[in-house]
Design brief:
The chain has 175 residues and is mainly α. The chain contains seven helices and no strands. The protein is 74% helix and 0% strand.
Length: 175
């Protein structure tokens, strides 16, 4: 039995230059070092968020620039569209700047799903009220129409968010 010294090999040596980085590790470090996620701009979810923000903004501007006949109905529409717009912009910024990687204590898919669920119901109610009180004024009809368009786009986001958060979790649990 030999009680001699054993040699333990490690990946890095203490006496010499560090090993050269492979192309894969350099690419992953370069992707992490970037401030913004350029791929998200061109993804379906990113373009869907931009379309939602544009339709909400056009609906808000249409209602704001027309003559109101019922103050409470259209102020509710404006509040809902602006709150929804701000929240969609917030989640857009979270995805663009990869904030979800820094704040791991928040379940971002669940938060986004709940936002879209509540916001879509409120937007649908606001659009129905705006459409029923429009009295054929073109600006109010346009605002209600863009409100309905934003509602449809939000339903698409609910579906994609549900597909990501719930179906992915249930398949992971089964495996």
């Amino acid at each position: 039995m030999s009680h001699g010294a054993r040699v333990i090999r490690t990946g890095a040596s203490s006496g010499g230059p560090p090993p050269a980085a492979t192309a894969a590790t350099a690419a992953s470090q370069g992707a992490d070092a970037e401030l913004m996620d350029g791929v998200y701009f061109r993804s379906c979810a990113g373009m869907l968020k931009v379309a939602q923000m544009v339709s909400l903004l056009v609906g808000f501007i249409s209602v704001n620039s027309s003559q109101w006949t019922d103050y409470s109905a259209y102020s509710y529409f404006q509040i809902v569209t602006m709150c929804d717009l701000v929240m969609i912009l917030f989640f857009y910024i979270v995805h663009i700047f990869r904030i979800y990687k820094l704040l791991t204590c928040i379940s971002w898919p669940l938060a986004e799903f709940l936002h879209y669920l509540i916001g879509t119901v409120l937007l649908l109610i606001a659009s129905i009220v705006a459409a029923s009180k429009s009295y054929n004024l073109t600006g109010l009809v346009a605002g209600a129409t863009f409100g309905f368009l934003a509602t449809v786009l939000c339903v698409l986001s609910i579906w994609s968010s549900y597909k990501v958060s719930c179906i992915t979790q249930s398949t992971d649990a089964a495996v």
